[in-house]
Design a protein that fits this description.
Layout lengths: L48 H18 L5 H15 L7 H6 L5 H13 L3 H8 L1 H10 L6 H10 L4 H6 L7 H8 L1 H4 L3 E2 H18 L4 E4 L1 H4 L4 E2 L2 E6 L9 H11 L3 E7 L19 E10 L39 E2 L2 E2 L5 H6 L2 E10 L5 H9 L2 H15 L1 E3 L4 E3 L4 E2 L5 H7 L13
Parallel strand pairs: 4-9
Antiparallel strand pairs: 1-3, 2-4, 5-6, 6-9, 7-8, 10-11, 11-12
Helix pairs in contact: 1-2, 1-4, 6-7, 11-13
Length: 435
């Protein structure tokens, strides 16, 4: 599934001496915006990036503070941002914001500050402090979540070298390789690279089982040109022919020295558990890996060059879409108060490959349509779909199946369109699910 990426403290979030307040308009929305995000059209390009960027940063900051606890504050910011993304025109007055669904008091205050002053003081204060920046740095380590990152921050660590050089830390295997390949794994994966990896995997699996499909999902399927990893959904139109495929293809990839790291999990899907409220995650057989992508396969124009001395997570103005962080240039390794240099410095320069995160997911034919919806995302779109199914249709939706709790039956689907028809929702193209 889709994983959150850091939100940069771009210049657009900071106070500019020449910024003027946006004129207040009086036009209103012609029709009320639907309550559920899955009922709306939400594209990558929208009219309200200056608000949604600020709200995304507050969402991420709230997640860092809560570190695994109930993320109600973070969710509130995300829902507010989703409403603004779906607005078909620029927001120009606070009264219109109050009419939109899921925009609470805190989010309204942030929006009003931006409307009146051109920036949010709260967001600027977060950007100016070291907590958010350090949490971005540490959660950028493969295998490190917010809870571990905050523990390190509270211990007093501030740089990658602090983590590398502390003898009291017992790093896991994935965290060690995350440090070694920090630069690779925090440099955006381009669509061209994702296509190369898809073709490599497809070539190997079709040698093992002709007729297998390998679909690039996640943000790339929704229209993004860069992302943090590559999600490949693997299936076969004949039920059962996918059995044993993952271990076999991993053996082939391993034999060609294409994997720097891998961890697998078996299929734990239990149809009898679908009606349980907490049964929302998928349980497919899968592999989380780090691919060795040969540099010779990548065009020189796709290789980013470090050009910034800004703190980690800061993106120069004009280098990337503000809603899509860390895209357009490499993540800077410079840290205020210390240098986060790579212990693998010379080795990294000599490598003939770059590390890219790749997730391989195996879906049986009978569950493929639901898996495709789930792994396409976005995460919040899927959350909205599940809530709509539960609250409006008395159904339980997962990435495996749709279950009608009134008729007590599973609803098969052979396509994404059929999934939406079961829910009596208009079909949304992948590019329209970017909430």
């Amino acid at each position: 599934m889709e994983e959150k990426r850091p939100v940069p403290c771009t210049d657009s979030l900071r106070l500019k001496s020449s910024q003027a307040a946006v004129p207040v308009a009086t036009e209103s929305i012609a029709e009320p915006m639907p309550k559920y995000e899955c009922q709306r059209i939400t594209r990558l390009k929208h009219h309200n990036h200056r608000f949604t960027t600020a709200l995304a940063l507050l969402e991420e900051h709230a997640g860092y503070l809560q570190s695994g606890k109930q993320d109600s504050r973070a969710l509130a910011f995300r829902k507010a941002a989703c409403s603004l993304k779906a607005l078909p025109h620029p927001l120009t007055n606070i009264e219109e914001a109050r009419t939109l669904p899921h925009i609470g008091r805190h989010s309204l205050e942030v929006i009003q500050d931006i409307l009146e002053d051109g920036f949010s003081r709260e967001v600027q204060d977060i950007c100016d402090g070291d907590f958010y920046e350090t949490m971005q740095l540490f959660t950028g380590i493969f295998g490190v979540g917010a809870t571990t990152a905050r523990k390190w921050y509270e211990t007093g660590f501030r740089t990658l070298d602090d983590i590398r050089n502390d003898s009291t830390l017992s790093l896991k295997k994935d965290q060690k390789i995350g440090l070694d390949l920090y630069k690779d794994l925090n440099t955006p994966v381009t669509l061209a690279e994702a296509d190369i990896i898809q073709d490599l995997v497809k070539s190997e699996v079709q040698k093992l089982q002709p007729g297998v499909t390998v679909v690039l999902t996640g943000g790339f399927r929704r229209g993004k040109t860069k992302g943090h990893d590559v999600d490949l959904l693997i299936s076969h139109p004949t039920e059962g022919k996918e059995t044993g495929l993952l271990s076999a293809v991993l053996a082939r990839l391993r034999g060609k020295d294409l994997l720097a790291y891998e961890t697998t999990s078996a299929n734990t899907y239990d149809p009898s558990s679908v009606s349980k409220k907490e049964y929302t995650m998928d349980h497919f057989e899968r592999c989380f890996s780090i691919f060795k992508l040969d540099k010779s396969l990548i065009s020189s124009t796709q290789n980013a060059k470090p050009t910034s001395e800004s703190p980690a997570g800061v993106v120069k103005e004009g280098t990337s879409n503000p809603d899509r962080p860390h895209q357009g240039e490499e993540v800077s390794l410079e840290r205020a108060g210390g240098t986060a240099s790579f212990s693998e410095g010379d080795k990294t320069a000599e490598k003939t490959w770059v590390g890219r995160r790749v997730d391989l997911i195996i879906a049986p034919a009978s569950q493929y349509a639901y898996a495709l919806v789930g792994w396409t995302g976005s995460k919040h779109f899927n959350r909205s779909l599940r809530l709509y199914a539960d609250h409006e249709r008395n159904m339980k939706l997962t990435s495996h199946v749709l279950y009608d709790t009134v008729k007590h039956q599973y609803l098969p689907a052979s396509s994404e369109e059929e999934v939406f028809r079961h829910l009596q929702l208009p079909y949304r193209e992948p590019a329209e699910r970017n909430c």
